[in-house]
What does this fold into?
Amino acid sequence: MPSPYRLSCLVFLLLLASTPATAQYPHRAINPDLLQLPWSAQWIAHPTASGTDFGVFHFRRTFDQATLPDSFVVHVSADNRYRLFVNGTSVSFGPARSDLATWTFESVDLAPYLQPGRNVLAAVVWNAGDLRPMAQHSFRTAIIVQGNTEREALVSTVPSDNAETGGGWRVLQNKAYTPLPIHRSDVGGAYIVVGPGEVVDAGSYPWDWAQPDFDDSAWLAAAPVRHARQEWGINYGEFSGWRLTPRTIPLPEETPQRLHRVARSQGVEVPDGFVSGEAALVVPPHTQATVLLDQSILTTAYPEIVVSGGGGAKVTTTYAEALVDATGQKGNRNNIEGKVIRGIRDQFLPDGGEERRFRPLWWRTYRYLQLDITTADDALTLDDVRGIFTAYPFKAKAQFTASDTTLHTIWRTGWRTARLCAGETYFDCPYYEQLQYVGDTRIQALISLYVSGDDRLMRQALTAFDVSRIPEGLTQSRYPSHVSQLIPPYSLFWVAMVHDYWMHRDDPAFVASFLTGIRGVLDWYEQHRAPDGLFEPMPWWNFVDWSFPRGVPPGGDEGRSAIIALQYVYALGYAAELADAFGRADEAAAYRVRADDLKNNLRRIYWDDSRRLFADTPNQTAFSQHTNVMAVLVDLVPPDEQAPLLTRMLANDDLTPVSYYYRFYLDRALQKAGLGNTYLDRLDPWRTMLDLGLTTFAEAPEPTRSDAHAWSASPNYNFLAIVCGITPASPGFQTVRIAPALGPLDHVECRLPHPDGLIEVQLRRAETGLTGTITLPDNLTGTFYLNGRTVSLHGGEQTVQ
It folds into this structure.
C-alpha cells in the first residue's frame, strides 16, 4: 500500500543544490537525475513508548557495503529533533524548525562516511513533550529515512516482510535522560521558553551506541507510525501528522571553542592549562567544589564535559549571560565580585567510566559557565571542558572601517549579536526565547543581507509568517510557535519586510506569492476603521514599543491611536508599490485612497499647532517620538518640514522616547529628512553597553533581561546604509544609490555584498570636500549623491570628488 506521504514534490530538492556545504557536514548537491524513487518510507517509532511524553530514543540500521559508492543520498526527518550518525560520525542535524504543514527534511550524502563491510546509520531522536521550546511544533516522536535511489533504499524506514518493523531499524529508549525544567524563578522572574535542561545518568547510558560494532541485539524492532486513511491505493486527502518539505537553509555551523579563563574556584585547586585542554582537573573524594568559567564573550554553543572516574558524583552545570548581585542586578558584566550565577542548568551523573562525554542535546547560551561538583568515594577527573559554537553559518562579506576606531568595536559586537540571534530561524534572543518575531526579524534580515549577502534565512522567515496567517488575515507575531500570539502591528511590518526583499533581490515569483497575504493583513485593518475614519478599539496585543506600558501606545487598546494608524499608512504605501509592480493597478489605487484618507484625518485631528508636533491621541494629551517618526516616514508633512519636525521632536524631553528597537525607524526618518549626518552622534547607548562589559547588544537599557537582542544590532545596517549611504535605487537592487553621511568622520571605507558582486566605497575628507573611489560590480549602475549634487556611477572603479 503506498504511503499517504508519497511526495510528488520531490523535485523541490533542487533547492538544495544551492545550499553550500559546511566544514562539519560536507553535503553534496542533489542531482535531479538521481531522484528516481517515489517517497515510500514510513515514519517509525518505539513500539511501546509514549509518542508525546518526554523521551530520548536511539535508532540503528546496520548494512553492508561491498564497494564504496560515489554517492549515497538519504533524506531524513524526525519529531521533535534528531542527530544522524554514520559509523559514529555526526552527519546531519534537524529538522529545521517549522510547523506540521511544512515539516522539513534534510538531504545528506553519506558516501564520505561509509566503509567497506559493516556500516551503521544511527540517530538520536528526542521529544521534550510538554516541556518543549515554545518554537517547537510536534505531532509525536518518530523518525523517517528515505533512500534517494534503489541503491540507498536498503536504509529506508519501510515495513519489512512481517509488516511490523521499520525495515531492519532497531530502537532503544534511553532511560538515562530525565528533564530538568526551567522555571522563571531560576532566571529572576524573566519570561523563558527554550525548553528544559537535562539530567543524564551515565550508568544507564548506552555508550558507543552509534558505533558499527555496538551490540543492539537486545533493542526492539522499530514500528511504523500509521496515520491518515488510505485504502486500496486511494489517497483520500486526509492530513494528520507531517507534510514534508525540503530544507532550504544550510545546516548550522559547529566549531570547537575553548573557554577563556577560570574566573574563580572554591573547594578545589584548578591547574594551569585546564581551560586550554592541556591539563585535567582532579576533584578528590567527598569534596564539594565550584568552578566558574568565563568564555569572555557571550556565545551559543554545545558545552562538552569529559570526565573519568567519579562513580556516584554529581556535576551540575549552570549557564548565564551574566552574574547578578544580591539585588538581582547584573551591573558590569566583567565584574564578578560579590555576584552569583543563576540560570539554565544541566546535570551529569558519572558512573566511574573513562572519558565519559556529556553534551546536552540542544545548545546553550552563556558567557559564564559554572560547574558545581560533588564527589562520593572516588575522585572525579575532569579531562576537558569546552564548547562547540553553533549558529546559522553566516559569513561576513561586508567591511566597515572609519577614522573613529571605536566604531569598529560596535561593528564587531553588532555582528556577534546578529549571529547569536540566528539559527534555524531568526531569534529575538538566544537565551530566553529563541522565537522568530516579525519586529525583530525585519531588522535582522536587513543586517543579514548587508553584512553576509545570504538571503535564505530571510526567505524562510517571510514564508513562515505567511504560513502563520490566521483566517482573519493577520500573520502571527512570532512563528514557528506552538502557542499562537497576535500582534497586529507586526503584520504591518511583515508587509514592509516583503517590500525589503523585493528591493534587494530580483525574485518576482517569490515576492508575488505574498500579495494575497498582504491584502489579507490590510483588509483586517480596514475592517477596524470607525465611521470617523480612525481606528476603533483594536483586539489582540497592539504592541508598538517597550517605551509604553505593556508596549501598547495610548489608544492602542481604546482606539484612535495615531501610531497604529500611521503604521497602517506605512504598510499601505509599500503594498501599493508592490501591487503596481505586479500588475494590480486597481489594488494599488485602493491602497493609496485608504492612505490618503487616513493621512487627511491624522493631519486634521492629531497636529498640535502650539507644539508643532503630532500627538498620540485626539485629545492631544500624550506625545511620543514614535508618532512623529512615522509622520515623517509616510510624508504626513512636506519634505522641507520633515527635518525641522524631527529637530523639535529630539529637543523635546517630555515625549515618550523610542527604545533600542524603534531607534531603527527613527534612523530611517532622520536619513529620509536629510539628517543622516547626525546618526553617529546618537550612538551613546551602544557605547554605554560596551562600557558595561557587554559583548553583545542588549534588549533594553539597564536593567535588561536579555544581553543579546538582535534588534539592537541595527548599527551594522546603519553604518552601511546611512554612513556609507548604500541603498537600492530600484527593485531587485538593479541600480544603487550612494548618499554618504559621514558626520564627524575624516574617512570611511566599506564593502557590501550585492547579488552581482561587491560594492566598495572609500571616501576621505579633503580641503575641497569629499574625495574617494567607488567600485561597483560590472553590470551595476547607480547615482552618487552629496550636498545636492549627483554623479552617475557605472560598473567598475571610478573616482568621485
Notes: The two ends are 74 Å apart (CA to CA). The chain has a mean pLDDT of 93. The chain is about 20% helix and 25% strand.
